[in-house]
Amino acid sequence: MSEIERRGDAHGPGTALAPGQSDALPEKFENPGLPAHRHRMGDTDPKAAKRAERQVATMLVLSMIGSVLIIVAYVGIQYDGSFERISLSTKAIGLAMFLSLFCLGIGAVHWAKTLMPDDERIDYRHRQRGTEAERAEAVAILKEGADEAGLGRRPLIRNTLIGAFALFPIPAVFFFRDTGPLPGNKLSTTLWEEGMHLVKDPEGGRIRAADVSLGSIVHVLPEAIGELEEIEEAGSTVLNEKAKAAVVLIRLQEDRITQKSADWGVDGIVAYSKICTHMGCPVALYEQQTHHLLCPCHQSTFDLTQDCKVIFGPAKRPLPQLPIVVDDEGYLMAERGFDEAVGPSFWERG
């Protein structure tokens, strides 16, 4: 086999190099260099730079106006219960929010494209921590970049940028504030108290311990809910109390319950708050084989065989357990109320 044929085999079957062609790699590639720099109008024409500065400032001012219009639409368009009013408010807020976000983004992009330096530079790789001289040089480069951004030399852009960023988050204050009053320590108290019977939700009716089958899940409420619903003046109070007092009732195999569940339960029947300790969603999914309770909102998973300890998801606290007993007729009732606050863990707790 000739030398040319042997070299051809190195490139693949049936491939041969032309006479005089070498497959040896060059020792060094030539530096192709940087392309010729193309100057922008703002780099060479002061009037163009000033015009671009005014355009950026205009975009930022429009963003400020959009932020103000969000608040105006939110406060000025009051709900009257009609779909048309809700639709008008939603569209007005959406359009104002679009104006605020779009103009803020366009202003930032236009600023970067027309006024910030666009020189091509080469940065060579080096050790993660440089020498003191290199670190000092990096600080100098950052300062140089800040100077080149023109915030000091372009007060119009600087001031309108500050105004746009200052006004932009203010509408969020209105949105979050309108989600309702903070619960304070109200989550520490529910309708559950000593001797309160458990009733099915929503059909009602007391629950006998003997009727709770192995592996089943029953959604229950305190019997006092029925009395509260009869009070016409209660209004939203009924819904608030239902939300706090919702409980799931489950019967486990006796060999899967903990000492606490044995002390606080009845013959393997345990009761836990239905309200997820992450964001307050209803924990209503039960995996019978794994004995896990799941929250459908953010997938927090609670293990019933470990006193509803969190084993997956964003929740940080086990579901509060309701201690239960049976009366003389075999009906389940609360031994006392919850020993800890129900619901999300990020609220202040008494």
What attributes characterize this protein structure?
10 helices, disordered N terminus, iron, Cytochrome bc1 complex Rieske iron-sulfur subunit, cell membrane, 350 residues, single chain, alpha+beta, electron transport, Rieske Iron-sulfur Protein, Rieske_2Fe-2S, four-stranded antiparallel sheet
Give your account of this protein's structure.
By secondary structure, the protein is of the alpha+beta class. The protein has 3 domains: 1-25, no CATH class; 45-177, no CATH class; 186-334, Rieske [2Fe-2S] iron-sulphur domain (Rieske Iron-sulfur Protein), CATH 2.102.10. It is built from 10 helices and 10 strands. The protein has a 4-stranded antiparallel sheet. The protein has a 4-stranded antiparallel sheet with strand order 5-6-7-8, with no helix packed on it. Helix 3 runs parallel beside helix 6. The longest helix has 32 residues, at 83-114. Mean pLDDT is 83; it is low at 1-14.
